[in-house]
From TrEMBL:
Protein name per the record: D-alanyl-D-alanine carboxypeptidase DacB
Keywords of the record: Carboxypeptidase, Cell shape, Cell wall biogenesis/degradation, Hydrolase, Membrane, Peptidoglycan synthesis, Protease, Signal, Transmembrane, Transmembrane helix
Family to which this protein belongs: Belongs to the peptidase S11 family.
Recorded name of the encoding gene: dacB_3
E.C. numbers: 3.4.16.4
Annotated GO biological process: cell wall organization; peptidoglycan biosynthetic process; proteolysis; regulation of cell shape
Region (Disordered): 46-77
Residues at the catalytic site: 114, 117, 171
Source organism of this protein record: Eisenbergiella tayi
Enzyme class (EC, first level): hydrolase
Domain Peptidase S11 D-alanyl-D-alanine carboxypeptidase A N-terminal: 81-312
Length: 500
């Protein structure tokens, strides 16, 4: 009897294999995915650990390069000490790099007096055309404390350029007032613009309430802030042109039939006792409470310097400034980074979130960059650091910044290598989403397909039907043969023997 059930057993076995196949594929796909996910997780963990070790190693190496470095106090750091000056506050800043070569109480707040007008000039240059006509308001002519002025009349019209000359050469408060109202609408609005722009430039100590610098206990600034403001103003060629002019005349207007002559108040620009070779821009300031304040710009060879002194007695302001210029020009040098740096360097890379990692980076200059260092210091003694912008703001370049001890001495913009650039991820689309199963199959990671269900049902129906028919046929054959052997087989042939 056993041999008779072999076809039935085969059918049942085939059904079991057919139904179990999709589930085996599905389980297999999950198993592969899980294993690969674990492998990826472990690999990433290894990379993070390696990166952490590399950063720590880089930091230890950096510490060993300058043991005990504490700026001027460090045994391996040499920074020249400047001369003694009478001014209560002062600074010398290099124009192209912003390097501070000398400072004395540079963040102390003082009354700036008329050097305030450099900020007024900056906002006018940034917001106006030189040929725009400025109408002199009533308040500009009838200020309570008029101070220096060029006798402008109410309703008189003159150009923005003429106002700049009047303000920078003759220190005319009426011209500054008229220009401020033209730019800001009101003095209050213009003061807000001054303070906003100061913050954008990195100023830390200023609070401006008027455009001319006349006494107000709320109106303060510092040598550091005024150097930053002057550095920005020097980016405008008209500022250089106006502030170095020794003599200028404003042409007659509809209200004023005569020329308005004016001479530059800055003694270091003019011939005489306090003349200094190389001075090309500047602004004077004086009030009883502020005493003498002075901003002076000078150039020698390929280096431009800004000197700011605040709260000085009389003509000593020029003596202090000349002394500081002599010291800085004699003791510092300007070095081109592009011709001094190696083609490839190992450097700490600092991201916008503050994290650091030491990387080997090729130095490909995006634009000229310089450092200002003491004359006896070698470029190789500087410590570079690559600064990266936040990913959403990062472009093709980064800033290679150099320090010497505690001094920031310059920077350069370099082209970033590919591994430091932000990789753009393609946006997901319906096409990409729909193609994922095909991609999974291609990678050997196919998942469960829902079309297995109707196919399985159909196959099961066919198999069950076939199995039932096969079983019934086997039963019929079995009974027929049994009756025949027992002699009880019916004769359906009409007396004839049935065919075999």
């Amino acid at each position: 009897m056993k041999y008779k059930w072999k076809p039935v057993t085969a059918v049942i076995l085939s059904s079991f294999i057919l139904f179990s196949s999709p589930m085996n594929v599905f389980a297999s796909g999950n198993t592969i995915s899980t294993i690969e996910d674990e492998m990826v997780h472990n690999t990433e963990g290894g990379e993070e650990t390696a990166a952490g070790q590399e950063t720590e190693t880089g930091e230890r190496e950096a510490e060993q390069e300058n043991p005990g470095d504490s700026g001027e106090a460090g045994s391996d750091i040499f920074w020249p000490s400047g001369p003694s000056v009478v001014a209560e506050s002062g600074i010398v800043m290099e124009v192209s790099t912003g390097t501070i070569l000398y400072s004395k109480n540079m963040h102390a707040q003082y009354y700036p007096a008329s050097i305030t007008k450099i900020m007024t000039a900056l906002l006018a240059m940034e917001n106006c055309g030189l040929d725009e006509m400025v109408t002199v308001p009533h308040e500009a002519v009838y200020m309570d404390d008029k101070g220096s002025h060029i006798a402008l009349d109410e309703g008189e019209e003159l150009t923005v350029e003429d106002c700049l000359y009047g303000m920078m050469l003759a220190s005319a408060n009426d011209a500054a007032y008229a220009l401020a109202v033209h730019v800001g609408g009101t003095i209050e609005n213009f003061a807000d613009m001054m303070n906003k722009r100061a913050k954008e430039l990195g100023c830390q100590d200023s609070n401006f309430v008027n455009p001319h610098g006349l006494p107000d206990e709320r109106h303060v600034s510092s040598a550091y802030d005024m150097a930053l403001i002057t550095r920005e103003a020097l980016k405008h060629e008209i500022f250089r042109t106006v502030s170095k002019t020794v003599y200028y005349e404003i042409q007659p207007t509809d209200k004023q039939p005569d020329l308005i002559p004016m001479s530059n108040h800055h003694k270091m620009l003019c011939s005489g006792k306090y003349h200094y070779d190389g001075v090309f821009a500047g602004k004077t300031g004086y009030t009883v409470v502020a005493k003498n304040t002075l901003v002076t710009c000078a150039a020698r060879d390929d280096m431009e310097l800004i000197c700011v002194t605040m709260k000085t007695e009389g003509r000593q302001v020029y003596v202090d400034t000349a002394s500081l210029f002599d010291f800085c020009f004699d003791n510092f040098k300007k070095v081109d980074i592009g011709t001094s740096e190696a083609a490839e360097i190992q450097v700490p890379v600092k991201a916008a979130d503050g994290t650091e990692k030491v990387e080997t980076v090729p130095v490909q200059m995006a634009e000229d960059g310089f450092v200002i260092i003491p004359s006896r210091v070698n470029f190789s003694e500087l410590k570079p650091q690559l600064l990266l912008a936040a990913e959403e703001e990062r472009g093709e370049t980064g800033t290679l910044e150099y320090t010497y001890g505690t001094h920031q001495v310059g920077q350069a913009s370099i082209n970033l290598p590919d591994f430091l650039k932000v990789k753009e991820e393609p946006a997901e689309t319906e096409t990409e989403t729909e193609s994922q199963p095909a991609k999974a199959e291609k990678d050997g990671k196919a998942g469960f397909h829902w079309w297995y269900i109707p196919l399985g049902i159909l196959a099961a129906a066919v198999i069950v039907t076939g199995a039932v028919m096969l079983v019934r046929r086997q039963i019929w054959k079995y009974r027929w043969r049994k009756r025949r052997r027992s002699g009880r087989t019916r004769d359906y042939s009409g007396g004839r023997r049935p065919r075999r």
